[in-house]
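#struct-queue
[09:14] JT: dropping the first one here, sequence first, then the structure tokens:
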Amino acid sequence: MHELSIATAIIERADELARADGTEAVSAVTVRVGELAGVVPDALGFAFEVARDGTALAGARLVVEQVPAQAWCGPCAEEFPVGMPPFFWCPRCDQPSSDLRSGRELEIAGIEPSPAPA
């Protein structure tokens, strides 16, 4: 399950970013996961819960934004969904495309600091 190593890397990086911003505690980490990134969002969520214990993100939740795979068709000048398994033929003009515009993302999109205690 490579999601555990990904979750660990997300926690480490989110902690670094939070500390650099002067944040002591994090309540949520938002990640963007592309349809073709090879990551199972539910498995990543489970792995995040396991890996966060004992870290500065122990109380944080993981928010996963799924990014659909989209390709660009030059002759039609349009984006089209690639789907899963991926199919890189334009549904409009029936031409192949090699221009993948989205779907491989695996990135931290945001970190939400925990509210300061009153």
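[09:21] JT: and here's the second one, same format:
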Amino acid sequence: MRWWKMLGLAGIAGVAATGVVIARAERRRRAYTPEEIRTRLRERVEASAADPDQPEGRRS
């Protein structure tokens, strides 16, 4: 029965670690001002327009 406990604890630790990663990414995403977001999007559009060899569906 002891290995079931270890498996359960490992599962709980994995869920907690995933939650931490998601929360950290969300905080980083929300830290941008609207102007910073616009600037980044414009840069991405310019970069994808400058690379015509990139397939249409794969542009970032």
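[09:30] RK: nice, looked through the second one.
[09:31] RK: The chain has two helices and no strands.
[09:31] JT: good to know. The mean pLDDT is 86.
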